[in-house]
Amino acid sequence: MGNENHSFLPEMGDQGEAQAGPSWANPKWPLTGSDDEWTQSLDPTVMKQSVEKASAKAGKPTDPAAIQQAADDSIRAMLLIRLYRVRGHLAADLDPLGLSHRDVPEDLTLEWHGFTGQEDREVYVGGVFGFEWVTIRELFAALRATYCGNVGLEYMHISDTEERRFLQDKFETPEETIQFTPEGKRAILAAVIRGEQYENFLGKKYVGTKRFGLDGGESMIPALEAVIKYGGQLGVREIIYGMAHRGRLNVLANVMGKPYRVIFHEFSGGSANPDDVGGSGDVKYHLGTSTDREFDGINVHMSLVPNPSHLETVDPVVLGKTRAQQAFRDDLTKHEQVLPVLIHGDAAFAGQGVVWECFGLSGVRGYSTGGCIHFVINNQIGFTTSPQFARSSPYPSDVAKGVQAPILHVNGDDPEAVTFACKLAIEYRQKFRRDIVIDMWCYRRFGHNEGDEPSFTQPLMYDRIRKHPKVSTLYEGRLLSQGEIEEGYAQGLIDEFTGLLSEEFEAAKSYKSNKADWFGGRWTGLNKPADPETARRSIDSGIEDKLFDSLGRTLTTVPDDLTIHKTLGRVIDAKRAMFETGEGFDWATAEALAFGSLVTEGYGVRLSGQDSGRGTFSQRHALWVDQTDERKYIPLSTLPHGKFEVYDSTLSEYGVLGFEYGFALADPKTLVMWEAQFGDFANGAQIMIDQYIAAGEVKWLRANGLVMLLPHGYEGQGPEHSSARLERFLQLCANDNIQVCNITVPANYFHVLRRQMLRPFRKPLVIMTPKSLLRHPLAKSERSEFIGNSHFRRIVGDTTELPDEDIRRLVLCSGKVAYDLIERRDREEIKDISIVRIEQLYPFPGEALTKRLERMTNLEEIVWCQEEPQNNGAWFFVDRLIEQASLAAGHNLRPIYAGREVAASPATGYASRHQMQQDALVSLALDLANVGKTAKVTISRRKNYQKA
Q: Which residues of 464-492 are buried (b: 16+ CB within 10 A; e: fewer)?
């Protein structure tokens, strides 16, 4: 049973690398970079010895009393330095409006450290700020200037010594601090002016129109350009942005380079895409774009991901897209070339839980992107909510401390400081591959939108804002005083830029797009289906015998040096018997065959979820764990050509589903799947489902092939372990936007996964996956169903062959209940009722159902049977569609509902009541007598059209 092509999975790092240590071991423990060095430096004996050596070297008195006094002074001085490194940000000058009351903490004063009246005494500090010996006055001035200026640094919560030293050196070494050349300063001024004048122009041309302007935060424009410029120098070749509304149009125009005329065209009600593309479109401040910028001869590709009004939802999408692009560029190890940048609002950053979910993913295997730059536009207000009511922590950025991310607080009225912060951020990210946060304190010159009146709720703040000069005015005055520019220089920049805007405004009147922004790059060769029928057609997805047999060997061969669990051994033995006999293929084996065949054909396969490696129901076993040392072996990752990945995710639905959507957004050549632990839990990610999966293509022209696997089925396991809320997905169905399946046959599952990749288009696929059917004796497939010209069946006929003319009642159903119906019907020896399964609910197979109904010439009744309550499940979706098929077939029959009564809870929590209801709904569907009223099931009879 040997296999020379081993694939062992490490717990940390990418799949295929060697693993060291058990899976539960924390590779970051014990913590590196503890405070041992600091503690040692404050040891009186060590300090005294250091002072003795330094005093002798400097020719200072060396009598014991003087040495003791100098050592005591040094200890107090080092404690002062330490406290400024830890808490100096609390006294930093951050608020442009001066409304934030920030008293200097007592422990940052000389009095607290006992230096009152001793300001001119020299102390030994051993090289801090370049000083060996320094007066208290000089030291205090250096600390105040470094840690309490327009930039406040939080970094002493970081455990890694190297990271702390890097940030410390950047702050405390004079040549590393905020310094710009005259050319650099003029470039910063020009960028600020572009940001301001752009908003002014929009405000004049489109009075009262919402634009969610950047007014008050224009320093972000040169700062983001610094990320591009310095990032390019440090190896970045692609930046993927995500941001909400505030300043989005400004970033699109002045950072991303979206043509001004296109944005003006959109303000006038036009579309950036050709009229024949279709889709609903979206408001202009939700849209994204992609472009290239060049700095110093280095080209950087940039894309801004579309974002709905649900703030921060785009965060995991950006991270997932980044991960996919890193894989495409072979950058998953270095994380050097592709950079995610997320731009947040202060209230959303503190208030939205998905922000933490994304931080939680930052260091997790399979989800890491090598660090993200987070830029917080801190307006010091939400919509109308002040910070003291919007969070419980001092800063909106405090959530980032959970992953020990450094935080740079910076005054937004100082564009040099903001640009410096971004320059430092990109250097840190490229060196350490970790998240970092810039918290830019600014203000919102107008209300939440340009038609809002903010003085209703913040009269004092907005009185101050009305009197406060603009960023460009302040910075222009600063450069004039420094002699960097001459009088009138700034006005020249303003006149030149507003002239350009006027030209673009005129050009917008005749602008007409001739190309839609999709199906380029990796999507080349894919397309939008020409019509709904194209999306519904069958496609052969069977595989060759040779590949089938080869995959069988891969799935049943245990490496000689791998000790597997004894129960897993029995599972593998059973699987081997399937391939030997060609019979009894279960759900998990069919799935593995789909995965393996796609990988062999060159596609990627990525599966993630909270327990996806083993499978929630111990059914998948895509990952085998050695019982002696916990090495991980993944059989399917030994296959050639493509790449198979399976990840057990963090305990998150919202963030992880968004991540996988983003991955699929960037990589149509990989089958990307997210699996809920139970289908019910998908509602924790409902925003991603509603805003992105169901509507992303029609709103933003962004196709996506994400697959959602949602365990669904009524087995008496209670309200939270029964229903994947099928009805919610069906309610979202329109315009061939998604596919919804409730599959009961393993081979059909195999084909629907392969069909997902083999067709020339991508649509999200939602599958109600089984639980009890994973091992049901009737839910099996044969070898022939996977081979040759076989394909996915949208409708599965009866397991018992009945003459069409004998069928009196047709029971249509979907999912597990089919097998309950079949077993009961056959036990009762009923010969005039046919049971047909609808395996694909959307797009609904109406034409195929019509053809079946036409053959049943003596049909009297059509029943829809479901396990879910009447107000749940598929009933309200399929009801009229079945009627339409019946009319088209000439029967004029309305369907009858057989199932549970309406209910607020999706299922009962009592096993006995569940079984009573299940037996009753099966009896109703099969027209059997003696159904108890206590079972709470319903049969809704509708008169046919001829009698109506």
A: ebeebebbbeebbebbeeeebbeeebbee
Buried b / exposed e over 760-784, threshold 16 CB at 10 Å, is ebbbbbbbbbbbebbebeebbbebe
The dihedral through the CA atoms of 169, 172, 173, 177 has a sign that is positive
> Is 478 in contact with 229 (CB distance < 8 Å)?
no
For every residue of 191-238, DSSP letters joined together read HHHHHHHHHHHHHHHSTT------TT-TTHHHHHHHHHHHHHHTT--E
Q: Report the chain's C-alpha Rg in angstroms.
A: 33
CA distance linking residue 901 with residue 921, whole number of Å: 10
Q: How many CB atoms lie within 10 A of CB 584?
A: 16
Q: Which helix (H) or strand (E) holds 925?
A: helix 911-925
CA dihedral (487, 492, 494, 498) in degrees, to 10, reads 160
Architecture per CATH, 213-257+272-469: 3-Layer(aba) Sandwich (3.40)
Q: What is the pLDDT of residues 472-501, one digit of tens each?
A: 999 999 999 999 999 999 999 999 999 999
CA 842 to CA 742: how far, in whole Å?
Answer: 10
Mean pLDDT of the chain: 89
Whose structure tokens read 């399976």? 646
Report the C-alpha gap between 257 and 189 in whole angstroms. Answer: 18
CB 662, CB 317: distance < 8 Å: yes
CA distance readout (Å), 265 to 245, 274, 831, 876: 19, 13, 67, 42
Token pair of 907 as six digits: 């299922």
Determine which helix (DSSP H) or strand (DSSP E) holds 643, and give its type and residue range. Answer: strand 643-648
Q: Which of 637, 599, 371, 29 is nearest to 647 (CA)?
A: 637
Query: The pTM is what?
Result: 0.92
The per-type count for the chain, helices as H runs and strands as E runs, is: 30, 26
Side-chain half-sphere CA neighbours of 518 within 13 A: 25
Which range (90-94, 283-287, 673-677) has the least confidence?
A: 283-287
């380029």: which residue's tokens?
Answer: 520
Buried b (16+ CB within 10 A) or exposed e, 443-462: bbbbbbbbeeebeeebeebb
H-only helix segments in 483-526: 489-508
Helix or strand run (H / E) with residue 884: helix 875-888
Spatial distance between the Cα atoms of 755 and 792, rounded to a whole number of angstroms? 7
Given this chain, do its domains 36-151 and 795-940 carry the same CATH topology? Answer: no
The half-sphere exposure of 382 on its side-chain side, counting CA atoms within 13 A, is: 16
Structure tokens at 228: 């591009």
Q: Confirm if 230 and 293 have CB atoms less than 8 A apart.
A: no
Q: Terminal CA-to-CA distance of the chain, rounded, Å? A: 69
Contact status, residue 804 vs residue 856, Cβ threshold 8 Å? yes
Read off the tokens for 793. Answer: 């069946």
The dotted CATH code for 795-940 is 3.40.50.11610
CATH class of 544-786: alpha beta
Per-domain residue ranges of the chain: 36-151, 213-257+272-469, 544-786, 795-940
d(CA 108, CA 84): 7
Rounded to whole angstroms, the Cα distance separating 876 from 878 reads: 6
Q: Top-level CATH class of 36-151?
A: mainly alpha
The percentage of residues in the chain with a pLDDT greater than 70, rounded to a whole number, is 91
Is residue 408 predicted with pLDDT exceeding 90? yes
484 backbone dihedrals φ, ψ, rounded to 5°: -80, -25
E strand residue ranges, 332-453: 338-345, 373-378, 407-411, 436-441
Contact 481, 473 (CB under 8 A): no
What single letter denotes the amino acid at residue 698? Answer: V
Residue 777: which residues within 8 A CB-CB, separation 6 or more? none
Query: Is a pLDDT exceeding 60 seen at residue 5?
Result: no
- Alpha helix locations (H) across 272-399? 314-328, 346-351, 353-361, 387-390
Decide: 306 and 699 in contact? Cβ < 8 Å.
Answer: yes
